[in-house]
Amino acid sequence: MDIDRPTDLAGVLEALRQAPEATLLAGGTDLMVEINFGHTRPDHIIALRRVGELQELNGTIGSGVTWARLEQGPFRALAQAARTVGSPQIRAAGTIGGNVATASPAGDGLPYLVALDAEIDLRSAGGERRLRWDEFFTGPKMTAIEPGELIHSIVLPEELPARQEFGKVGVRNAMVISAVMACVLRFDDGRTRVAVGSAGPTTLRMSRAEEMISAEADPSEAALAEFQRLVSEEVRPITDHRSTESYRRYAAGVIARRLLERCLD
Fold it and tell me: What total of structural domains would you count in the chain?
């Protein structure tokens, strides 16, 4: 196994130019599990932990920013999501870029990015391109990343709502992959965004529920009930070892409503 350990972005891109099929390693919280279980055996690894350009946290979120930093960061709902990720040791090592690259429907950071219509900034020796989340995530654990490309950062819109909430449910309260999770954002003008994870092949936006509740300046109990119903209708869950389709559908509506109620308080 060959390992490159570049110390800057230029070094990473040069290593990728020479070995475009190389496996990128940041925190390793997903990759090392796959290696330890014998599910994968990379021939060439490019380690990213020493690359400071990937760890910036300002208007954008560098792909190398850890969950431990995000849980103390300025983005309320993303900080809430970060606090639910694994153990303190996992949060100290795992990165938002790894979460995005893995593209699991249960990726804890994804509902926040999807709700905000975030863009993924990709870099390669040939240049830069940005893809919106719905262009980047193409299926369960599938993305539009091409050989030789690196996730440089996640680009958030300039306008961020002050009212934002994240929540999830699983078989226990800590160190758990979610059965269902959701993020709800509410702007001052009433615009509402809702994204649900672990309830479809990718993280989903609840467009019908968003449109309905965004038109309600002061949602009534009837409007909240309709919002919950629409979310439950829009998700596309499956039954697996973590939960059933019917429970996920029910829970998605309940969680989204509770998060919206928090935003309205």
Answer: 1
